Amino acid sequence: MSYDRIRDPRGLKHQIGDMEADYIYTAGLAGEKFLLALRDEGKLHATRCEKCDITYLPPRMYCDQCFGSLDNWIEVPKTGTVQTFTTTYEDMNGEPLDAPITLAFIKIDSTPSLAPQALLIAADGTRPHHLMR
Ligand SMILES: [Zn+2]
User: Fold this and answer.
1) Are the C-beta atoms of 113 and 57 separated by less than 8 Å?
2) 48 CA → ligand 1 middle, Å
3) Which residue has better confidence, 115 or 48?
4) Please, what are the domains in the chain?
5) Strand 96-108's sheet: what is its strand order?
């Protein structure tokens, strides 16, 4: 059996035209509860597995380690350590923004997350190194 390498994509069967694609993204049960608490109460909520001693932020419905259902919701502090950050001056289309946006990876206090959390810090020019410990 042999395979021919395709060098000219025009030889593939294809159709030229526009395709309408509308998407509705849902955050899921845990994500919705997390986002509503953040928006309406300004609180960071996480789920916790006592058996595995893991706090999930953003919250999850099931523990990655023991697959147990996570019903224990806790409020975590809004303090943490900036691990790294970047500032962007353009939008996704390369157009200049009215004001720069800074994104940072923050390890939230009391959450032994395996990965830092990504949060939008400031759109007002606040530099993360002023927030770093
Ligand atoms: Zn667990």
Assistant:
1) yes
2) 8
3) 48
4) 25-76 (no CATH), 78-133 (2.40.50)
5) 80-90, 96-108, 117-122
